[in-house]
Amino acid sequence: MSGPVRAQLPHSTLARFRTGDASALGEVYDRYSRSVWAVAMTVTHADHLAQEAVQETFIRAWNSAASYDPDRDLGPWLLTIARYTAVDLLRRELRPTRGGHEAEQDAVVEPPDLDGAWLSWAVQEALGQLADHEREIIRLSFFDDLTHTQISERLNLPLGTVKSRSYRAHRRLAELLAHVRDSPPAEDDGNQSAPRQRTPVGGARGEGRDDA
């Protein structure tokens, strides 16, 4: 059985969002709130801050909606706001006040990794379009770093079945993430780009791995 496929919002909805339509904001929230929460959690590692970041992100997005280009994908734009918002909240949370006598000291928080946020979102979107058994193979192979034999034992499946499912799952995921793999690394004022994140796509991790 396939997992839920979260379709892109219609262009008309994005256009209404840009003009400040409240119903469009509701549709945007329903579509992206889970992804926004996931990005916030990667920054804050605290559910209460992530929940606050979700609310603040959509407030900021609503206030900045006029700057959004409805011809472009809303996801990266929104998750960029989410990342900055989460960093702001984490910095505020970690800023100590010592009896009101000493100056507050800003906590050291790494700057937002916008490429990483976009990549994480793209991978999650692609995983959501895989069948349940394919997504499980990817999770065990890539995220849990298990070999085909270990996956076979974990799922109580024949090794040949695991290998064939792994091949199909990685091939399907590679197709869904072709736009990520083919896009050039972002450049920053002429400086060298940071290394691309490892992704569970054929070519980056291959199609699962056998035991050494």
From TrEMBL:
The keyword DNA-binding applies. InterPro entries: RNA_pol_sigma-70-like, RNA_pol_sigma-70_dom, RNA_pol_sigma70_r2, RNA_pol_sigma70_r4, RNA_pol_sigma_r2, RNA_pol_sigma_r3/r4-like, WH-like_DNA-bd_sf. Residues 29-93, 126-173 form the RNA polymerase sigma-70 region domain. Residues 178-212 are annotated as: Disordered. Gene3D superfamilies: 1.10.1740.10, Winged helix-like DNA-binding domain superfamily/Winged helix DNA-binding domain. One of its GO terms (biological process) is DNA-templated transcription initiation. Keywords: DNA-binding, Sigma factor, Transcription, Transcription regulation. GO terms for molecular function: DNA binding; sigma factor activity. Belongs to the sigma-70 factor family. ECF subfamily. This is RNA polymerase sigma-70 factor (ECF subfamily). It comes from Micromonospora parathelypteridis. The lineage of its organism: Bacteria, Bacillati, Actinomycetota, Actinomycetes, Micromonosporales.
